[in-house]
Automatic annotation (TrEMBL):
Any Pfam family the entry gives: polyprenyl_synt
The keyword DNA repair is annotated on this UniProt entry: no
Keyword Aminoacyl-tRNA synthetase in record: no
Family: Belongs to the FPP/GGPP synthase family.
Cofactor(s) essential for the protein: Mg(2+)
Source organism per UniProt: Parabacteroides merdae
Name of the protein described by the UniProt record: Isoprenyl synthetase
PANTHER family: GERANYLGERANYL PYROPHOSPHATE SYNTHASE, SHORT CHAIN ISOPRENYL DIPHOSPHATE SYNTHASE
Length: 324
């Protein structure tokens, strides 16, 4: 049984060995660039962890796992372009280093490269893996569309928001776990339970991301605090603030949402003060803990020796213990 750090090291080594040799090289330079920027590598790691629950040799799952990481980075490349973001992991984004057209075309090539790697799944499980991945890829596009549509709405419900983050964030974690389970020849019930574990841990993770964007510490969170407030992002907290606010609080929130020019620090302080008054930090933490507990409950029903589940418990703790 691999340890978590062993799996991460294996993934990192395999990523450095990835080669895109078709001409022209200029098409693949942006792909190699974004993959070189690092990241948590949590999705390919989950593939190998889930596979390793059921069999010792995970080598046949490596290329499909890499395909999932290439796909994830493809979504980041296009997200950055759509958001006109300047930085990704503290380095210039692809469309800033090159240009928008290059980012689009190299992103398209990344998606195809992801399918190519996932296509190297062993034949007996290839169709099931491809069907799962294709459905997941479409769901992620749906989540991004919802996210874009929410930008112009002020009536987004909590249920709609949870569905959006399920599609945009959680389904890829769930897909990684189920892919690994299938390639490990897990019982079908276990593969589905691991999928549900991924959904719940993904929802908890994204809700915590929203929480840390308001209440985190820049030094440990890794990005500036208050970004969601500044761009009026429809997060769990803003949605519930608009739902729970008094008329006075709602008027103040809507005033800040409507302002085109403002002092960023003032807006962050004013909106955070309303969140404090409404105890939204506590409400968020309750929701996060509920999803986290559901994820842990999924693990208890797996047909696996309890000690083999320690690695998934460890990675869950790492995901959820980013400090504020």
């Amino acid at each position: 049984m691999f340890a978590f750090n062993d799996i991460l090291q294996k993934i990192e080594q395999e990523i450095t060995r990835l080669q895109f040799t078709y001409p022209p090289k200029s098409l693949y330079d942006p792909i190699e660039y974004i993959l070189s920027l690092g990241g948590k590598r949590i999705r390919p790691a989950l593939v190998l962890m889930a596979c390793n629950l059921y069999k010792e040799n995970v080598d046949t799952a490596v290329n499909p796992a890499l395909g999932l990481e290439v796909f994830h980075n493809f979504t980041l490349l296009h997200d950055d372009l759509m958001d006109d973001a300047d930085k990704r992991r503290n380095k210039p984004t692809v469309h800033k280093v090159w240009n928008a057209n290059t980012a689009i075309l190299s992103g398209d090539a990344m998606l195809i490269a992801a399918y190519q790697l996932i296509g190297e799944t062993e034949s007996e499980s290839l169709k099931e893996i491809l069907d799962l991945f294709t459905r997941t890829a479409l769901e992620i596009c749906g989540g991004q569309q919802y996210d874009m549509e929410f930008e112009s709405r002020t009536d987004v419900t909590e249920e709609e928001y949870i569905e959006m983050i399920r599609l945009k964030t959680a389904v890829l974690l769930a897909c990684a776990l189920k892919m690994g389970a299938i390639m490990g020849n897990a019982p079908k019930a276990d593969a589905e339970t691991l999928y549900q574990f991924g959904i719940n841990i993904g929802l908890a993770f994204q809700l915590q991301d929203d929480l840390l964007d308001v209440y985190g510490d820049t030094a440990t969170f890794g990005k500036n605090i208050g970004g969601d407030i500044l761009c009026n992002k429809k997060t769990f907290m803003l949605i519930n603030a608009l739902r729970l606010a008094s008329n006075t609080q709602k008027a103040e929130l809507n005033s800040w949402i409507g302002k085109k020019t403002f002092d960023p620090a003032e807006k962050i302080a004013a909106v955070t003060a309303i969140y404090d008054q409404l105890r939204l930090k506590e409400l968020s933490e309750e929701k996060i803990h509920a999803y986290y507990n559901q994820a842990m409950n999924c693990l208890t029903s797996l047909n696996v020796a309890p000690e083999r589940l320690n690695i998934l418990k460890e990675v869950s703790a790492r995901l959820m213990n980013r400090q504020s």
